[in-house]
Here is the input.
Amino acid sequence: LLSSCLTKAGYTIGTYKSPHVHTFAERIRVNGRYNDKELSELFEQIWKKRTDLETNDDVQKEEDDALKQLTHFEVLTALALKYFEKKKVDIALVEVGLGGIRDATNVFDENSLEYSILTNIGEEHVDALGGSIESIVRAKTGICKPSRPTFIGHQNDRKVDKLIREGINNQGGVIIENNAKVRLVNISDDDDMVLKQRVSVSVRKRKNEEEEEEEEEEEFNGSINLPFLGPHQRENAELALNVLSYMMRNASEGKKWDKLTWKSIRDGFESCSSFSSPGNFEILRRPQCSDTTTNSDNITIIADGAHTEESAVCLRKTLLEVFSNDEPIVFVLAMASDKNHSGILKALSETPSMVEMVAT
Here is the structure.
């Protein structure tokens, strides 16, 4: 959403995220597009430097030894940042790989980091991040930097929200409170038979510290067709709006973010294709009629990467919101051994119209 809106405003935006689904190059994009050939050539250049060191017995320097020990993800992160430099991006949107404070992406200081953004935090990568929700939050808030604005997404647990705020304060970050509301109006097909949720959007006007307290004013309100489905995506939209409205509020003429407008935000939201993020409630096949017979042509197939109990709840809520309560649902599941199998199975099994669950 951020990338789409900033691109519509006329900026060059780099995005680095994982994992990929169809091609490795999905991880590294500029203005929403990836280039396999360019990335492969740049990757070969970086990897060649690493392998040259491995075969050079004369290299003794400490930094060269460290270079030999780089992990796959560290090399990819270097590749992404080098590619963004080559493409002269105006801003890079960098998703943390694992955790935060010790992550390969956490290489920015307060001078090079624009903002820190924390989405919903749950029990993910528990073993790698210390074994508890407290240790997970400490790791996640490690991306915050002194005096830099930090935005917090909706949290399902007040305890987690409190821990996040404590963690940000410990890092010296500045919390920017949410000023946006996104509410569901309806779900319908567009002209191309693509399901979208129409949402009402309102953004409160931010006040400077020196302004006197007055009755809250709305800076923007209207309705938008959001091409992502589910209540969690409305929470993501609120978070994105919070960041974008702050950027607009702090733009300076002829400098950063002065090209960002409400029109570019609306256009960015509505043109942000769900195909750019495969595996997020991706509708692979959907019948073009309402016939509910058992003919296989009338079966809807959805791919979703929910892999925590919290995200499984989001999947269940989205299914209930998009489809009728009496429409039979079959789950086919595959999970790595470190996931919370029982929690995910329980969350999905509470779907009222579930008729079968297949664990592969």
Observations:
- The mean pLDDT is 85.
